[in-house]
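Hi W.,

Here's what went into the run:
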Amino acid sequence: MSEQNLTIALSKGRIFDETLPLLAAAGIEPVEDPEQSRKLIIGTNHADIRLVIVRASDVPTYVRYGAADFGIAGRDVLIENGGEGLYQPLDLQIAKCRMMVAVPQGFDYAAASQPGCRLRIATKYPDITAEHFAAKGVHVDIIKLYGSMELAPLVGLSDAIVDLVSTGNTLKANGLEAVEHVVDISSRLVVNKAALKTKHALLEPIIQAFGSAAKAGGAFI
Ligand code: PRT
Ligand code: MG
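Here's what came out:
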């Protein structure tokens, strides 16, 4: 009998929802729904496995420091805020979307993004944005925002935004259009490196179950 416990860091919303079938495949069922309960620590049908509910961008931090043994984080978060020090064995192919450049409909992006041009971009992802435009030879003034990026070009804060797009409905509702692809995004399993060794017997079957359940293209990486 093992006396070890496992703590899993997840964010509410789309990642939690899309992780439920993966947890089920590993025989893990949360006893409460974080959308209904205000609790941040949620038990499961296993006395030794619990979930902690954190902001999406905080998942890597909890796992890196070992406050959670593993978690699930978007590739956007891992690229921008750093996935260093984390073992990333699986692309789960959940919470998929695309990071795109978007502008007000009718804005001549082709002309405005010639090499040597200067653009003002609002985004939650300054590092990814800087790298994208540096590769194109376009100068950018980056304005860091924490949400509602779609508003920025509508009120003259920026020429364009770099944001995540899934259905495209949010852009459309705000008179914006996607004009350039930056990177494809999906969510990954991130595992604390020490836990991988010390809790290997507990973790390995879960990682395997997630890998098989993420059949829609889930890939060991
Ligand atoms: O919301 P909060 O500020 O707490 O944090 P968060 O936005 O980082 O978390 P959350 O739960 O909203 O997203 C978690 C992860 O889901 C992200 O890190 C992405 O990897 C992934 N994901 C997948 C998305 C989307 N699709 C997505 N569409 N994250 C955000 N969006 C937003 C987008 O920013 C835009 O505002 O949804 C809007 C666009 O959606 P459509 O369908 O209208 O195109
Ligand atoms: Mg959000």
